[in-house]
Design goal:
The structure is a homodimer of 366-residue chains.
Chain A lengths: L2 H11 L2 E2 L9 H12 L16 H17 L6 E6 L2 H13 L5 E6 L2 H10 L4 E7 L20 E5 L19 E4 L16 E5 L10 E6 L16 H6 L9 H16 L2 H22 L3 E3 L11 E6 L5 H10 L2 E2 L10 E4 L6 H13 L3
Parallel strand pairs in A: 1-11, 3-4, 3-5, 5-6, 6-7
Antiparallel strand pairs in A: 2-8, 7-8, 9-10, 10-12
Helix pairs in contact in A: 1-2, 2-7, 3-7, 4-5, 8-10
Chain lengths: 366, 366
Amino acid sequence: MSLRELRIAKENQGVHNFSAGPCILPNEVMEKAAESVINLDGIGLSILEISHRSKEFVAIIERARTLVRETMNLPDNYEVLFLQGGASYLSIITAQNYLSKEGTGAYVNSGTWARNSMNDAKVFGNIIEIASSESTQFNTYPELKDLPTDVDYIHITSNNTIAGNQIKNFPKTDIPLICDMSSDIFSRDIDVSQFAMIYAGAQKNLGPSGATLVIVNKDKLGQTDREIPRLMDLRNHIEKESMLNTPPCFSIYVSLLNLEWMIKNGGVEEMKKRCLERSELLYQEIDGNPLFEAHVSDLDSRSKMNVCFTLKDSSLNEEFITSCEKAKISGIKGHRSVGGYRASMYNAMSIESTKALVNVMKTFKL
Amino acid sequence: MSLRELRIAKENQGVHNFSAGPCILPNEVMEKAAESVINLDGIGLSILEISHRSKEFVAIIERARTLVRETMNLPDNYEVLFLQGGASYLSIITAQNYLSKEGTGAYVNSGTWARNSMNDAKVFGNIIEIASSESTQFNTYPELKDLPTDVDYIHITSNNTIAGNQIKNFPKTDIPLICDMSSDIFSRDIDVSQFAMIYAGAQKNLGPSGATLVIVNKDKLGQTDREIPRLMDLRNHIEKESMLNTPPCFSIYVSLLNLEWMIKNGGVEEMKKRCLERSELLYQEIDGNPLFEAHVSDLDSRSKMNVCFTLKDSSLNEEFITSCEKAKISGIKGHRSVGGYRASMYNAMSIESTKALVNVMKTFKL
């Protein structure tokens, strides 16, 4: 079978991929990536076996950085980096680059990953929690009011993948604002100038796991009195244009293909529209179906990416999972820490997959 | 074209890939990886879009860890991890996990990467250089004698990819011995019990860039008085079986395919034989051809993986590069810091590629 036939055969299997991440990517991105794993643009070498300093890979990473810059309308004093380590590693990078020895880092505790970011920073100095919705199992995004004005930075997590909450209006502050945007970047309008740094693990709306996108305001770096390890100082990565050490080449390459796919399909504007359609359709079913209940009741806090819900009667859990499996709905189980169900509907998901899930819910126990 | 036809067409292009890393991998590994980028084992999902906690990926990472364990004959108290960040990041991990606040880390300076490891550790405490061949441009592996007995650890780099030196006999010591084996792992016999930790960036003999293999003696961890950030404490990675955070799934998957290829082809024993054949053939030509000169003259220090040489008459450089290009020899330029030529001949390289290079050298200026 040709690559195209392989892809169509896969599509015909009709699996609906609701995985929380790594997650669905466009099939045409996979097809092109597969071709390049054998032979990159006909050069006689695989994308996996070329030097990161080859002219081919330098062109790939430069184009990926440029497309992020254009898509997000970056001001000139912002840089785009592709690092390794995931969002968890960026918790350390955040503290290393923004927290003074005697300063304070302020965190919004909107979920498990936000809390981890906060706790991981504590080894580096004074860390405070300025808002939290933990006492209600994160069933709302914490209210942000009276933000501190005497801290080194404020850290927020825009979208909670486990409980399914999401911030809708980013706070305005003169304090450097740092945002973990792993799970909703490229699905919403962002005024980057509000942030000192935005970071995102690639494995949701950007690409495969293994790369971490960092968008950083150069002017806000170098303000601390801390001695930063060479590999953790963002200024060094900026200076070396994301090549301080060998980058995760394939993850960056697939991210580039995916950025190109997104732009060809209408860019963030269209992605925003699609994710609104998908999430509205599903929340409507959850709210209207007496068997189900949304985890996040506050309408304004509901995630448009990760819709979390439960069966009111938990004795039906196994039966519902079986119904989902029959309809080829994959990755719908909630995070192991909370149970229930989670429909992660990232940019590459077609509305048909959401409809397939809604249909299972509509016909369940009829 | 089918995947197989694509692969054969690529092979027929006949590019000889001498890249220093990311580098050559077996074409049958690429073919299988490409198939899985579209549809992993026919499950209807790509290797790029499945959760790292799916049963499919858990089986992949477990098998990769098991094959490393078997291939390297690991004692029971050793663990295998796949991390992110590359060998450069492991310099930080080394200091964090083995260097006490008032202790000393001892380094062998055998090349640029060894020196970077040493310098990167200095931010964490007292670091000393115990041997160096820097004054002779690393044209030999530093002599190791009278190793210190009062340090927290000794760090060595087994193979220098830039100057082309390599240690042949690892030192015996009661001090925890840590080795960056990025560029010659799986090409030589290793008695793992001699080491507290071995690490290797995947992008040479293991797989694509983006993953870092760590082999660690559990009993030597937790000996320092340092507070280690959660994500940097190797004990946490061991406890979570390399799933402390989202791993670089595709790099690990291709590493598994490559380990399987290696075992099917005779394992380390056969890889050792092949790399000896390739390097002997090339050194013989360099030593016998009046136009060329090996960078490493000390025979016992010569790398079997990265053969570095120069033209005695540097005015011929451009002409030689043109001759190489005509013969489809790729990636032969020396590291930008030293110039000259570097033939990196990793496990997947066929002897035919070495012969092609030798042939260019033999016929050059005739």
